[in-house]
Design a protein that fits this description.
There is one protein chain. The chain starts with a strand and ends in a 10-residue tail after the last strand. The strands form two sheets. The protein has an eight-stranded mixed sheet. A six-stranded mixed sheet has the order 13-12-9-10-11-14, sandwiched between helices. The protein has two domains: about 160 residues, VC0802-like, CATH 3.30.2130; about 210 residues, Rossmann fold (3-Layer(aba) Sandwich), CATH 3.40.50. α5 crosses α10, α7 packs antiparallel against α8 and α8 runs parallel beside α9. By secondary structure, it is an alpha/beta fold. It is built from 13 helices and 14 strands. The mean pLDDT is about 95. Helix content is about 40%, strand content about 20%. The structure holds adenosine-5'-triphosphate (ATP) and magnesium ion. The site of adenosine-5'-triphosphate (ATP) has 20 residues, from α5 and β10. The site of magnesium ion has 5 residues, from loops.
Length: about 400
């Protein structure tokens, strides 16, 4: 019996003329991911990518890793037969046994996209339901809340029988929207922000600012670990690690304390601007959430934003911590995010930050010192590292 995976499009199915580009990108991402698992053959038809395992590629493992590929709406594991109801019926007992022998209830869904097939969908449903009951008489039918849904799709090129459908990651294929630079701290919010923008089709690379000796090697490793975890959804990630100590000390020595955090954030953004220009990123992403802390009030965000020369995406801006945390658990970054290592933001953080700074005040507060040269130096000394999907290289106890 030949088994195959059908990856059905999510939002791509709604695209018009340019749909091909999105499909190409999705197939490329899927191939890249499954290469690690074994050999597969691919073709696409009717808003679906057909993925056929060759030799002894592990289909279970393939399903597992396709779950996190953006652009896929649903993933189905199927057996393929010729378009003859009797042939399908003859195989129901054997193929559906693992799924149905211990189940209590089921229903059948049939879809006939090949309209030349002699039975209409409701008839297929009826007949297949009978065949299932003949083979598994212990089962009950439950059309509202079945334990197992048996699907039969009569497509252009075959009849596809399935008892296993997984909801896909949704969104758009990574890379189909261009690329952006995520300001990644060690906290809960920024990995979630990166995940959300990758879901909209962006390649997400990460920039992180460190201030040794105020921040430790451990803290940096924690952020690298987050990068590694994010590859599960984002694919390969380039990680930029910016030495930020001198800039922070310059802020400490030359600016009024109450403005430290906002000025620091602005300098981070100015460094990100330069990396974006040099390496062709189209946007900056942050994990800022309105009102979460003093540096994320409307006025403070306005001041930070004014330093940006690229669009700044803040996908968690309207979410509360509980919602962000929920996503963080779902995507598997939470446990690393809560490890108690310091971030450079907590270095020299003011006791009484101004919560409503105006841009004029901030610019005046920055004017005692010329940060430009140091910014260029920081960009020059930035270390670059690559994290590849599926590779585990960071070990934190
Ligand atoms: P997160 O949970 O993402 O760390 P946070 O509330 O701890 O958020 P803040 O200190 O409020 O972080 O920073 C807000 C945003 O600024 C972060 O989401 C991140 O995008 C960026 N940021 C903060 N610190 C750093 C850093 N050291 N390197 C890179 N980006 C940073
Ligand atoms: Mg935050």
């Amino acid at each position: 019996m030949k088994e195959i995976i059908l990856a059905k499009y999510g939002e791509i199915a709604l695209k018009g003329d340019n749909r091909n580009t999105f499909e190409d990108m999705l197939v490329k991402n899927i191939k890249r991911r499954l290469k690690k698992i074994g050999k597969f053959e691919y073709f696409r038809r009717q808003s679906t990518i057909y993925i056929e395992p060759l030799e002894d590629a592990d289909i279970e493992q393939a399903l597992e890793s396709l779950k996190n590929v953006f652009g896929i709406g649903a993933i189905q594991r199927c057996a393929v037969f010729e378009k003859d109801f009797d042939v399908v019926a003859a195989n129901v007992g054997e193929y559906l046994k693992p799924a149905l022998e211990n189940a209590k209830t089921f229903k059948v869904e049939a879809k006939r996209s090949d309209k030349s097939f002699p039975l209409k969908s409701p008839d297929i449903q009826q007949k297949l339901g009978d065949v299932v009951l003949d083979n598994f008489p212990h089962l009950g039918v439950d059309v509202h809340n079945p334990e197992v849904t048996v699907r039969l799709e009569i497509r252009d090129n075959g009849a596809y029988l399935s008892a296993q459908r997984i909801i896909g990651a949704g969104g758009m294929p990574v890379g189909s929207s261009g690329k952006a630079l995520l300001m990644l701290s060690g906290g809960i919010d920024s990995p979630v922000a990166g995940y959300m923008m990758a879901k909209r089709g962006l390649v997400v690379d990460c920039i992180h600012y460190v201030s040794p000796p105020y921040t430790s090697e451990r803290a940096r490793m924690k952020v690298e670990k987050l990068c590694e975890e994010m590859t599960e959804f984002c694919g390969n990630i380039i990680f930029y690690c910016v030495p930020f100590t001198e800039l922070q000390e310059a802020i400490r020595d030359n600016c009024p304390e109450e403005y430290f955090t906002v000025i620091m954030r602005r300098l981070m953004v100015k460094i990100a601007n330069k990396v974006c220009k040099r390496d062709k990123y189209g946007a900056i992403i942050t994990g800022e959430s309105l009102a979460q802390v003093a540096s994320q009030t409307l006025s403070a965000l306005g001041c930070t934003n004014a330093a940006a020369e690229f669009p700044v995406f803040r996908p968690v801006i309207g979410m509360d911590k509980i919602e962000i945390t929920e996503i963080s658990r779902k995507i598997g970054t939470y446990d690393t995010s809560i490890l108690p290592y310091e971030d450079c933001c907590t270095v020299f953080s003011p006791k009484h930050p101004r919560t409503r700074p105006s841009l004029e005040e901030i610019i005046a507060a920055e004017s005692n010192f010329d940060f430009d040269k140091m910014i260029d130096e920081a960009v020059e000394k930035t270390e670059v590292k690559r994290f590849r999907y599926g590779e585990k290289t960071v070990f934190l106890e």
